[in-house]
Structures are given as structure tokens and as C-alpha cells.
Amino acid sequence: MAIQFYQNISDEIKGIFKLDTKETSYVMGVVDSEGFLGHIYYGSRLNDYRLAHVLRVKEAPFVPSVNNRDRGSFLDSFPMEYPAEGLGDYRESCIALETRGGNTGLSLNYVSHKITEGKPALLGLPASFGEKSVCSSVEILCEDAHTGVQAAFLYTVFEDVDIITRSVRVINKGNEELYLTKVFSACLDMDNRDFEAVSLHGSWARERHIQTVPVSHGKLSIESVRGESSHQDHPFMAVKTKGTDQDHGEVYAMHFVYSGNFKVMVQNDQFDQIRMTMGIHPEGFKWKLGPGEEFQAPEVVMTYSDEGLGKMTRTFHDFYRNHLIRGAYKDKKRPILINNWEATYFEFNTEKLIAIARQASELGIEMLVMDDGWFGNRFDDNRALGDWIVNEEKLPGGLKYLVDQVNKLGLKFGIWFEPEMISPDSDLYRAHPDWAIAIPGRVGTLSRNQYVLDLTRREVLDYTYESVAKVLRSANIEYVKWDMNRQLTDIGSAYLPAERMGELYHRYVLAVYELQDRLMKDFPYLLLENCSGGGARFDPGMLYYSPQIWCSDDTDAIERLKIQEGTALIYPLSAMGAHVSDCPNHTVGRVTPFETRGHVALAGTFGYELDVTKIPAQDREMIPEQVAMYHKYNDLVREGDYYRIASYSENRYYDCYGVVSKDKKEALYTFVQVLNRPNYHSRRIFFKGLDPMKEYRIEGEEGVYFGDVLMKAGYLVQNMWGDYKSRLIHILEVS
Ligand code: DGJ
Known about the structure:
By secondary structure, the protein is an alpha+beta fold. It is about 20% helix and about 30% strand.
């Protein structure tokens, strides 16, 4: 049994919950006196549940307690499973409310629990899933007797993949309406062990760079109040013991299955205890909860690794591939696409697209994606969002004609939308100015000359859905790129009443989920790729709807090394939208070999983003080879175990990573020499993930080596001359 409850443990502890995965244990205790749920242990798997002696219930200096001094639960030192605000735990809280009378404070105390097989869905939210045979759940119900507020904590244990997920449902059992001003989804209290925090930060075109900093006293918080998960911060944090690297050391990680405002925080307190919390950002959040109503907070995915960051990475990859990504393309090779954005920007027409498609089909490319600019008056990015009607000046004969022609050339057809937006210069805005999110009377803040639609209004949501669906029904469209090119500001809705205005941010995210859910139900064969000005909404929430997400608008192979390293820290390679583009690169002006661009894009979904009719002939001639390379390696890249061998972000000269098949019969390592150095024309690298006892050969070379030789003694990458050069090393078991 993965979840056990043991009763009547000691005078102080009335029950212990023990959650076990294959290699980890998570233990909580219920304090007898007040019924607080305390955190006891998370780490490598334990045989025994008798851990009551380590739950800190004793008095600490200058710390408030609900009862008198000789009882348990001194709130500012007690390791709380889900801390509430206002009654004496001064650390970061997980939940806060306001009653109608303006009072705050609550105390959540154990009432009951229920253990079940499988995992219930979360209403309206994306969440991981699993059959009854692979996961089990416990819902622990706690209550604040004073307000009648209940919180149901759902923990699900995915035994085989070493993942525990958490979420919280708040129920108003009282007689009065109240306002939730904060509802986080998870908390992890532990003693500090010289922890360092790992997070992902960035900006447009340089998303998800890895950052590691010491966890010092005070709070470190990573957050977004931009209405989306953002380019800038990522809803992820890991704390690791000092010195932890890819292969050694302890890591505790949390990842948020949500696409809106978030806050993830680590705090080192006065007693050198650390608290990690994760949830919806409380800024701009105020949720009215009437009697009998419920609020469902999104899910947090947690894992623990005692074999460094590499094991954490592989755990997340397996988990997302098997328990979050869905749809027709879940475990399937994706068509190699060519997207016309960097090829033409807004200057294209049917003739141009057909010319690209014709050339592409001769080279083995499998799908043409028509990007921004095909609708309304969209001749540049200043107008027409919302007017989802084909621009027949650009596409004479309409969409169906174009799609049919492309299909005749043997290519599938995909299309770009930005459904959540409205341009002030659009027929839609002229007809419905109140459909934009705006503060009445205030001149709205524009970004890329557009506003965000108020999707909390049912009519707006329905119009938005129908705009997309109608186009999809009109021709044989097999792929959608769903873009979102501005972050939210001016939070105001002409529809929501004043007391619900604090719900807009979250309701907006729920509406996006509803739209994509409907889309996937009505068009189940569709390949959906989410995108947000590059990778600003690359998060597990969106991954639930689309098996791939555009990683970044920066397609330069060298910039991509950092972006893809950070992304692959948590996401499977099959999810990372990656394309070969033209040079000089449109974002940084760098010129890299076409071969290197292909090798780097191979670590993602793989495709092209260039005008194939105009690129240099020698580059074009390489495309059939790259197409063959994709077909040869994609199963391995999509399904294999990922190993990080060297990081260009750390060493400044070269990058190396590999994927190894689950049966360890095959591996592919990618080496990129970013900058050459005198006397480094050959470099020894140490492969990872092979079977030490298997014999391997390296494709294209003489010799047979045991796995342990290749991993411990290494392999010499030779004759690397010049900058930005790359090599693939394909290793096969000798049978
Ligand atoms: C931002 C995306 O990331 C690009 O790939 C492209 O689709 C543009 N938007 C189009 O406006």
C-alpha cells in the first residue's frame, strides 16, 4: 500500500500518514492537542512509520501557541503541512481569508481522511492523471471551527515514478460569505541543510536560464503577476544540498501545474528551518466564497532525488510523458513542419506559401504552418486581432484553396491563431470595446498594440471559441499554433461585479483552459502547439492541452543551448518546440553552421523556420539529410532518458547532453563546441546512462567498448576545429 494511516502513536501524535513511492517516503503527523497536520519527513524511502519523535511540537523561545505553554504546536516553529495566516505562524502562510466583518486568521485542524485508489480530476483545471493501478490518493479534511472553512488536501502518490502531487480544495461550510485572499497549493517545511535554490529565470528570447543561489535567512521568491507563467520566472523551484550536481546530492523539487500568476518561495527562518511554498500569487487575488461554495487550487508536482538533478530531471520527464501529456500525438512522432514566420513575417500570399510548400515537400518536410498575418487587415502587428476572417487579398481563393494545394503537394497544413487578443484597430473592438480587459475610465496600457479579451464573459469566450473552430472546420487543418503575445495589465472587467474583480486573473486562466479543452474535444486529431511570444507560457498547465510548446522566439543555436538546457531540466524533449532558422540569426545576428542548427533543433520537436526557396543552396541540400536524421533518432529523443554531461552556461566553451533508450541498447550524445580554444581540438567527455556491462560500438568508428569504459574513462571528441561546431555521437549495443 502506497498510503498508510497509523493511529494513536503517542500522547502527542494521534496519527501518522506515510506515503511511499518506490524510492521515497513522505510522512505527516496529526498533533493530538490541536489537530494540526505537521510535516515530519520527505526523503529516501523509510521502512518504518514510527517517526513521531522528530515532529517538533515543543515550545520554542518567543513563539505563540494556541494552547498553554506545555502543549504542542508552537506555531512559529512547528513544521506545518499547510500553514494558515494570522494566528502566530509568522512565516509565509498558505491560506488567508477575510470575513464579511473584515476579520482574518484561521486554524486548520484535522477532521477526517479518505484513502482511495487512482486520482480524482480537478474541476476546471489541468492536472496529472493515472489509472487506479498506478496511483493512490488520500484526501485529508481539516477545518477552522471558528469560520466553518474546510480545506481538503489531496495527495496522490505515483509509486513507480517517485512523484507525489498535491492540491487543495477550500469549502465554505459556514453561514456567511467570505473572501479568500490567498490559497497556495503546497508547503514543505524542513530543517535547513545548507540548501541552495535552483530556479529558472529569463526574459523574451532568453527564457528559462538556470539560476542557483544559496538559501539564506529571509525569503527568496520567484513569481509572476503578469497573468501568465511568463518569460521572466518559471513556476518551479528545487532546493538542493550544497555540492549537489547532476549525479549526486539531494534535491527537493516543486513544479506548478498552472499557467497564470504564481508565487514560489523558500524561506529560512529563525530556527534554521526552511519552508517552501507554491501557489497562485496572492497579489490581485480575492475570491468570494459563499456558503456551500468551493475553491479548487491547482496542482503541485513534487519529487525528491538523492542522485542529484539528473534523476529529478528524468523523473519529471517520465511523469509528464506518461501522466500529463495527452492527445493523439502523446507518444507519436510529430510531422516535420516548416513555419513561415521568420521566412516572410507579414509579407506572404498564397503563391509564396505554395512555393515554400513545393520546395519543402521535395526536401522531405511534412507540414506547412501559416503563421501570423492571414486574417482581417493584418498587414503588420498593429491591427486586426479578433477579426478571424481570411484576408483574400493575401490568400485569393480562400483558405480551403490554399490548404488543398498544400495537401496536394503531400504536406499537412497548420495555422496560427492568437485567440485571446483584441486590437483596438479591429472590427471586433469597434463593435465591442467593452470586451477588452480594462479599468473603466482609464486609458488602457497597450502592448504590441493590443488588448486582452475579457474571457471571463461567456459571450466573449464563446465568440473566441467559434472564431477558431469555424476556421478549423473550413479546411483540412491538422495543426494549430496558439499564441499569446502580451501580458495582462489594467485588471478590470465590464462584466464582473466589484466584489468579484479579484477573481479576474484566475478566471481568465480557467477560461483559457476551457477553450483549449473544448478545442481538443471537438478536434481530437489536431496537433496543438502552445506559444506565448516565444516561451512565456511554457508550463505544465499548457502541456496538459498541447503535447508541445514553442520554446522561445530565439532560434539561434547557441542561445538555444541555454534555453533548452533550462527547459529540459524539467520538461521532456518531446515538448520543446525547436526549429532550424536562417542566418544571420534574426534575434542575435549570429552565424552558425546549418549542421549545428539541425543538431540543436533535434533535441526538440524539430522543424524549420526559414524561406526554403531563398536559403543558400548548400544549406538547402542538407535538409534531406537532416530529415533522415530526425526520422532515425526521434523515437530515441522523444522517449529516452536524458543526461546532462556538460553545460555551456557553466563552462563557457562547450555543451554536451545525451539520450539513452530505456533498454540501454542505444544512445545519442550531442556535443557542441561553442568556442574553440588552443590545445582543445579534442576533448574528453564522460558519457552517462549506459549499462556498464554492455558492449557498445560508436557508429562510423572502429572499436568496441564496455559501457563502464565509455562512462568512467570517457571518449575523446576529436578534430573539432572552429566555433559553433557540433557532432552527434550515436552509440549502439553490440549484439
Ligand atoms: C510570437 C511567436 O513566438 C512567433 O513565433 C510568431 O508566431 C509571432 N508571435 C507572430 O506574431
